[in-house]
Amino acid sequence: MTRKKWCLIGAAILGLSGIGASINPIAQTYVAPMVKEQVNNAINGSVNYDSLRINWNGDVVLTDVTIKDRDDHLVGTAREVAVGVKLSALPSIITSNTSGATAISSVIVEAPDLHIWQLADGSWSVEKLVKPSDPNKSGSFDGSVTIHDGRVAVRTKDGIKEKCRKSRWYYGA
User: pLDDT at residue 7 above 70?
Assistant: First the structure.
């Protein structure tokens, strides 16, 4: 390759690095509060995380995530949750009544620790964690969910406890 081509490749790499570095302060200031609000509006409980970053491809990555139900019971934690975003779907979400779920292409959860218990009426603690979809908004989640190094602790209403650990779970819609 000629010197000119090497210089152009170097400039492109530096430009992409600069864009990536400049996105994260913007993400912390503007995107992080919106993500926290949207996530907390989607569940009957709360989601907290230590940090948020946006990768060069638009993926939103949350670290040290904690989920609690509406009674403030711990439902789960995860070291990292990466949400792939279909950037092409964002304009239709902003300008119309399309569900935000349509913009999610994938969810990858690293090292989750989930706590699920059966209630006295026989239902499970996580059944009502996610709020129902808004019937006035179209679209649905058609992405994939991958869980790496997950642990689940289950307790039945009779007090029987079970623990499960698996290195990889995958769900594709």
Answer: no
With CA atoms as reference, report the closest residue to 84 among 100, 108, 67.
Answer: 108
DSSP per residue over the chain, as a string? --HHHHHHHHHHHHHHHHHHHHHHHHIIIIIHHHHHHHHHHHBSEEEE-SEEEE-TTS-EEEEEEEEEETT--EEEEEEEEEEEE-GGGHHHHHHSSB-GGGGEEEEEEES-EEEEEB-TTS-BTTTTTBPPPPTTSB----SEEEEEEEEEEEE-TT--EEEEEEEEEEEE-
Mean pLDDT of all residues belonging to the chain: 76
pLDDT at 99 (0 to 100) = 64
- 76-125, pLDDT tens digit by residue? 999 999 988 776 766 666 666 666 666 778 889 999 999 998 888 998 88
CA distance 131 to 171: 20
